[in-house]
Give the backbone structure.
Amino acid sequence: MNKIILFNPRSANSKHRIPNSILQVGASIHNRYEYVFVDGNLENDPWKKIESYLKTNEFKYFASTVMPGMQLKEAIPFTKKVKELFPSIVTIWGGYFASNQYKSSIDSGFVDYIINGPGDKALPELIEAIEGEKDLTLIENLIYKKNNEIIKTKKSDLFDQDSLPPLPYDYLNNFYPIENYLGKTFLGKKTAAYHSSIGCPFTCSFCAVVPIYEARWKGKSAENIFNDLMYLKNKFEIDAVEFHDNNFFVSEKRVVEFSNLIKDKNINWWGEGRIDTLDKYKDESLELMRSAGCKMIFFGAETGNDEILKQMDKGGTQTGAQIKSFAARLKKFDIIPEYSFVLGLPAENDEKVAHQIEEDINFIKDIKTINPDTEIIIYLYSPVPTEGSELYEKVSAAGFNFPQKLEDWLSPSWEYFDLRKNPLTPWLKPFMVDKIKNFETVLNAYYPTVSDFKLTGLQKQVMKTLSSIRYKTNFYHLPYELKVLQKFWLHYRQPEIEGFYSE
Ligand code: SF4
């Protein structure tokens, strides 16, 4: 038998969303091969489930999506166990981690193949090749080892997203009721996650998407997105959507068409975009988007420093002044900007690193004065683990090294690396990390996140009063009183780690 297990390792402690990556891969083999879904987010003991399937002797393939961060904690040990206990099973990895860390993954000896980018064609063709012993080198987007040499096949063009087979929601529903993936968030009572596009046309130097999609982007048509969402609304009564695209707003035309289709359907939505792209949108488009349910948009603001923005290769047009004026512009349309900042970039010496952190903190405070509803997300800069890239060489030269062995990624110090809270970069000294974290604590107390619908008016008021002297006098040192209240009274959440508050 040649059945396939499609595995989604646990990616969060709560807030489980429709596993779009394995759903899309499932679509590519649906009605061609027999397969099952195993979602680590919804299984108490996912290994037990995987093992029970493998013991039937009906399975030949174990395919796992592997994103950096939490998913490694199941992907690595489970794949290893599959190989040890069931050596004839073919193991396949996909996802950003697998593509960007392909060398250590393949060298581990327990990952047979890596789908390097979209798997819509690569996975069915790989199975076809193994079953029929066809030539693997003709399959695009594939990495594997032959005679001790790592073979990387050609990257495919991005596929027309409308030509891809429909997502097998009903089939997934047989394994895990879709209901269980629809959380209550500040957007709505039943929030679905959806991918409407792949890739991104930009080349920000710190972004893991760039080496995989090489500045390419392809989106589904507005009509197709609308049809999928209407299916989810009619069948599962969704009332909100998070678009988990890397860049949902690339095409104003598509966004306007989608807004016109969805506007009377009572669905709130959120997506990720670029400030310079959306700042080019017409006022009518922004107004239409808001009336069509767009409540909040995530933007990589990164920093207020124009020089650093250039170094980050943000596409060249985003400036500190624009970040500010755009926050004011969105306020007029009642769309909340969710701005993420990246602090702690390398500089020639400690003073310069510390000075830049100070400047960014002041910049963030300016944004809050301009539009107090702006959600601020602070990350610490962590290099993108893309082997062979220019930046990879640069940060290696500065004394930073990624784990050489796949299993080293499981060590506690690397566990939170991807959450960009613990970057392990030698130029960022502990006192700098403390300053950033303490500022964040004071900021979150003075301006509690608007997306946490559980916070009461009283809680917000108490935190604001308690933190106001610190905030106004720039005194962030050791804010224990705020930390204790945030932890035990507010059960405060950090959107950058946990996403919107969800239950
Ligand atoms: S715009 Fe966003 S998704 Fe696109 S390359 Fe830059 S950081 Fe990555």
